[in-house]
Amino acid sequence: MNESAQLRIGELARRTGVAAELLRAWERRYGLLDPMRTPAGYRLYSGDDVRRVARMRELLASGLSAAEAARATLAAPVAPRAATAPATAPAELRAAVERLDDAAVHAVFDRLLADFSLDAVLEGVVLPFLRELGEGWARGEVTVAQEHFGSNLVRGRLLGLARGWDRGSGPRAVLACPAGERHDLGLLCFGLALREHGWRITFLGADTPSDTLAETAAGLAPEAVVLGVADPALLEPVVEPIRALAGSTVVWVGGAGADEDAVARAGARLLEGSPPAAAALVAGA
User: Fold this and answer.
1) How many domains does the chain contain in total?
2) Residue 146 maps to which CATH number?
3) Which tens digit of pLDDT belongs to each residue from 14-55?
4) pLDDT class for 2, splitting at 50, 70, 90?
5) What is the greatest pairwise CA distance in the chain?
6) Which terminal residue of the chain has fewer beta carbons within 10 Å of its beta carbon, N or C?
């Protein structure tokens, strides 16, 4: 396999649009899929498997039998996922959202996840799309219905990718937003990017009270705690709780509301750049 296997059969079925029972049959009869097994015996599938299934479907649609399509799929090398997503993808995603076209949104995501690396999809598509969606709503070009529809669909797809991201033996990070902060999509993207570096993720998400974060960190003893802050006014009230937490673990603070002075007074580390870039920084540190 060219990349780490992290997908259970149900997620592979959702990404490819092929029923899990049929995927198992293709694996058993033709050796189409190449899963790895966890110590508990679960099969995990990779992006290579996603692309094989997509190719299998194309060949079946062209009229080949299942056996012929499987042989042709296995005979062809699996193309690696590209590191840069097309610049037109955010606009394509936004057009589908503006039509409130659920199926089209999922089709765009399916294609992107099959053809491009996760970092490329996050950096080149998801984050620009979310930014344009918010700015379009502020200008009155995007309706409340479109904004909610698009944000919720993106959140659902990202949470689907996050399934099982606490498995493995790598270092653990606890991710949260401080009390009152409800914008956690950027933090969710960060967690997915950090998982690509082999980290395990415990995601507490939006509006997390300081005592809850402290209790979680005490119980899990993570290698890092990462706070995402969009509103700078919500950082100042938690400077002292962060300082207390930073006495026992590394604390990073990122997001548009991560004021450098407040972060320094809290004894934390400032996390700058896009979520994939920030994840690379934490992993490298």
Assistant:
1) 3
2) 1.10.1240.10
3) 777 788 999 999 999 999 998 888 777 888 888 788 888 888
4) very low
5) 66
6) C
